[in-house]
Amino acid sequence: MASGGVRRRPVRDEIRENLIQRLRSGATLFPGIIGFDDTVVPQIVNAVLSRHNFILLGLRGQAKSRILRALSDLLDESIPVMPGCEIHDDPLAPICAACRARVRDGGDELPIAWLNRADRYVEKLATPDVTIADMIGDLDPIKAARAGLQLSDELTMHYGLLPRANRGIFAINELPDLAGKVQVGLFNILQEGDVQIKGYPVRLPLDLLMVFSANPEDYTARGKIITPLKDRIGSEIRTHYPASRHDGMAITAQEAWVQDRDTDLQVPEFVREVVEEVAFQARQEQKIDKRSGVSQRLPISLLENVVSNAERRGVLASESPIVPRITDIYAALPAITGKFELEYEGELRGADNVARDIIRAAVAVVFNGWFANADLRQVAEWFDLGGTLQIDDTLPAGELLKRTSAVQGLSELAALAGGGGKSPAPVRAAAVDFVLEGLYAQKKISRSDEWQYHAAEPARRAPRGVPADPMIEREIPLPGNKKKYYN
Known about the structure:
The chain is of the alpha/beta class. It has helices spanning about 10-25, 40-50, 65-70, 95-105, 130-135, 140-145, 160-165, 180-185, 185-190, 225-230, 245-255, 270-285, 295-315, 325-330, 335, 345-350, 350-370, 375-385, 395-405, 410-415, 425-440, 470-475; strands at about 55, 80, 115, 120-125, 135-140, 155-160, 170-175, 195, 205, 210-215, 235-240, 390, 445-455, 480-485. The strands form 5 sheets. The protein has a 5-stranded parallel sheet with strand order 4-7-10-1-11. A 3-stranded antiparallel sheet has the order 12-14-13. A two-stranded antiparallel sheet has the order 2-3. The model is unreliable at about 450-480 (pLDDT under 50).
């Protein structure tokens, strides 16, 4: 058995030294993690350099799991292990009885295997049904019977997730959901670095980096992290939502399934800004529960739905390129309403109405940024003099431009948003829609929404001679496209 010149070192020393090398080279520490460079990342670096087990505390959708998984990149590319060993024993210093016996019998002729870094990361989502046996291990009476061994023999042990993560990283997501007695079972590994199975004098000095994630607001709602366990965790690091719209847009652009579609697609910058601003407005909306947070998944899902609504319109109208409009954001309410929890006042108003209010507020903020110095009076006066427009989210670009061509000053304002005369019709239509929605959001013009209904489903008739049931005879209108009247 040969070590191949591989240097033996504990996992936390290995990660620490590899992190120092990456810091010296100037390489990105956590690719794909945006907005944490000056806040969360330095604290994680300090924890790793201190050889700490640590926990990430943050509301949902703050990239906690992604950060934990990215830690595996700080491990060596591969390490030597005992072939077939469940706990990845070091060939030069095995800790389990079976591997010690194999080394004793095989000596230097015993072969070794190699374990890559991806297989050294073990993750467990904490749920109330997780047991000590799942996490630490248990005695296996079948194994004992087959081998003719006593139950107290170390060779009868069935290893849980923790021992199987030996010489790697073990991550537990949503730690408060773990039952208190299971959390107690983690004490030894965090402080003394070993585990004991079923009360028998079997000590496994495991080599692990343990990391956790939790939602701090869930400590009393679903469970809590017991105080002695919190005391044994070296560092407690708080995550947060993007601090700026620019960071949020970068995350959304990175995560949303938009650019890989097999269509000619152009997403205007102002649409991306409004989509992101929706999340920022939701996080400060009084009708939304701040304790549950508004996940970064909201703008990601919203942008995907907005593009899909534009794609549907473009396919039906045979338009190219496909360009989303602000109107498409209102059509994408299903991507918003499931992403937040409402306070009592919000429940009374209704999720759809709260979402529309948020969109309107987001449009007003973004519109003000684009047209802060623009003269909006000419367009507003056209409506003040009695002009009206009827628009819906399925209206083709050519028809929208035709209907809005009579509005004085509208095309000039649209040009400021990228909808100049040489731009394709869908681009100009999106810019015109942005101006109209912006004026409405800033209450410079008014808008009334009215549902248009398709043909009713055929009514089911009662059999001859049977009195008609009015609930059966009633024709139920089906919701169609929402028309918007500006005046």
